[in-house]
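BUG: 3D viewer hangs when loading the predicted structure for this chain

Environment: internal workstation, default settings.
Expected: structure renders.
Actual: progress bar stalls at 90%.

Input used:
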Amino acid sequence: MANKIIFATGNQNKMREIREIYQDLDYEILSMKEAGIELDIVEDGTTFEENALIKAKAVAQCCDAVVLADDSGLEIDYLNKEPGVYSARYMGEDTSYEIKNANLIQRLEGVPKEQRTARFVCAVAAVFPDGTNKVVRGTIEGYIGYEPQGEHGFGYDPIFYVDAYGCSTASLEPEEKNRISHRGNALRMMKDELKKHENISCK
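Structure tokens produced before the viewer hung:
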């Protein structure tokens, strides 16, 4: 399995993104499910980096391959960087993002744009077959809009606006979003680390 990269997720949006960014690597990229790995991983870290590494290490114990995992979320400065590492669990894991997004906009009611600064953060961890590991962090800066906008993307994308585009990340075409996104940035950084560590060749 040394010619495989296993990404510790079942999220097809993430798998589509990583395959697009890593398409020139001479490696087969599999999700946990595709690799036949079923784990219930408790993400009890206090940072994005810790959670990403917890997931990668857990999956690495089940295979002899390069394992990647990510942890990402939204930090809103006015709300003391909430929801942060609890982004996926904010207001409960089963709560829809429509409700979560409406709640965050409500909590920022009356707050001027210059104080609505926020960022998406993504930490990507790699655990290599030799047991070593590497973690990188990617971010995208923006602000929380006054209303949801856009049909693309998922999660908090409809309320996260980027000044350079004058719209939410949910309004961007997927290719454009991947080019500037926190996860896209982190995956590209990790791609460089993979090439250095594994001597991964390009197709």
